[in-house]
Amino acid sequence: MAEETKNEEVVKADETTKTEETTKTEEAKENKSSDTPAAMSDEDLKAVVAVKERLQFFFSDANIRQDIFIRKHLMSSDDKCVPVDALLRFNTIKKHSEKSSVLIHAAKELSDSLVVDEEKMTITRVVPFTKEMMDENIPRSLYIKNLPVNESSGRYDVRVDEIRALFDKYGDVAIVKLKYAGGPPRNNRNHGHYGPGNGNARRNIALATALIEFHKQEDLDKAAEATLTIKGGEKVDPKDKIKLPETETRKSEIELEVVLLSEHIAMRNEERSKRETKKRSALEEKPAVEGKEIPKFKFDWKPGCVIKVRGLPENCDREAMLSAIGKGLDISSDDVKARKIYVDYSRGQTDGAIRFPEQSDSVAVVVKKIERWRTDDFRCKSRRRLNPRRRGREEVLGRLH
Fold first, then answer.
1. What angle do CA 360, 363, 369 make, to 5 degrees?
2. If residue 93 lies in a helix (H) or strand (E), which one and from where to where?
């Protein structure tokens, strides 16, 4: 009887263990399937459709050519992928859903073009984007000019969807890209489709131009035939004039200028080449012009016209030196000045120079006498400047140069 009871307990224990394992397996399946479209709410399913459209655009060739953020991740990062959390910060995705499960399922529905790594939580393209693909849009693109810009804000007074609507009738438009130039840093917060940005980011200046790329070459040809206003560098009358209607902010109808992007690039390169050629020519001509304008000076240096004097007393001055020179030449200080003998000296210095206008025997005479003179011969005549302790103890050296 006791053995039967033990056997029953073992059987019950086994059944309990199996039941627990089954429950855990079912819970795991439920957790795994809770992220499937069948388990999603109607709101999430609706978000998947919208996010799918955004992913299709963000990872398209047309957008990657213009989108530095996406291009950097796909071409320069180690794994060549875009993190899911980075995509969830895009405003145009975030407004539909902030759930990673929604974004991942949207990407999975684009399996022909996108690859999802759920372990790393990244998304990449099936066909890698390469550097060679950067210019493939040029033959299929138009360049639009004369777009309206608000004078006070400096922003475009036209929406991308307005421009797209003007060209949709000619074919499938891949992208409309408003063109900007970098300006000085802005102080306000910058909100792009990447979410809040750095307040010190450089301000974008609207150039009043846009790029329109078509998916197919035949669509571009159709649009070009009807809308071009510039051909071969000359203005022409288009079959269809592309005009923006008057609005509250646009006080009048605006006619746009249309040119092939390939022609615009060629004209821009030609203008740049002309500027560089003109600049090089100016630099080459500049030395010749400067050579004619800058006069050449010839220094006629004559030896024996300068006497270098060293060891002058602290209270020496220019008048004392002129007087000493006059004494050496047996002439007055006024006569020294009349002969244009110049004393190069500033009070407080211990060295000075006596400069004669021409070579003369008197120069050698003065040198010989200076060598015999003592410091008192160069002292200021004012008694209050004399230092009796040093009088007669220092010698003045004169050298001819």
1. 150
2. helix 91-94
Q: What is the DSSP string of 13-39?
A: HHHHHHHHHHHHHHHHHHHHHTTSGGG
CA distance 391 to 376: 6
Tens of pLDDT, residues 142-189: 999 999 999 888 899 999 999 999 999 999 999 999 999 876 655 554
Alpha helices in 204-260 (DSSP H): 217-227
Cα separation, 47 vs 217, whole angstroms: 33
Domains and CATH numbers, the chain: 43-129 (1.10.10.10), 141-183+203-268 (3.30.70.330), 306-383 (no CATH)
Mean pLDDT of 87-114: 95
The sign of the torsion formed by the CA atoms of 388, 392, 394, 400 equals: positive
Cα–Cα distance measured from residue 351 to residue 309, given in angstroms and rounded to the nearest whole number? 6
Identify residue 291 by its one-letter amino acid code.
Answer: G
Amino acid code (one letter) for 133: M
pLDDT for res 254: 95
Give the integer Cα–Cα distance in Å for 301 and 32.
Answer: 100
Check: CB of residue 212 under 8 Å from CB of residue 144: yes
Q: Which residues contact 205 (CB under 8 A, 6 or more apart)?
A: 154, 180, 181, 182, 183
pTM of the model as a whole: 0.56
What does the alpha-carbon distance between residue 277 and residue 274 come to, in Å, rounded to a whole number? 5
For residues 150 and 159, the answer to whether their CB atoms sit within 8 Å is: no
DSSP state of 388: T
Contact 336, 327 (CB under 8 A): no
Bridge partners (DSSP) listed for residue 35: none
Cα–Cα distance, 341 to 327 (Å, whole number) = 14
CA distance 353 to 250: 80
pLDDT reading at 106 higher than 90: yes
CB 396 within 8 A of CB 374: yes
Is the CB of residue 121 less than 8 Å from the CB of residue 70?
no
In 3D space, the residue among 173, 267, 287, 271 whose CA is nearest the CA of residue 223 turns out to be 173
DSSP letter at 117 equals E
Q: Which of 52-66, 293-307, 375-389 has the highest mean pLDDT?
A: 52-66
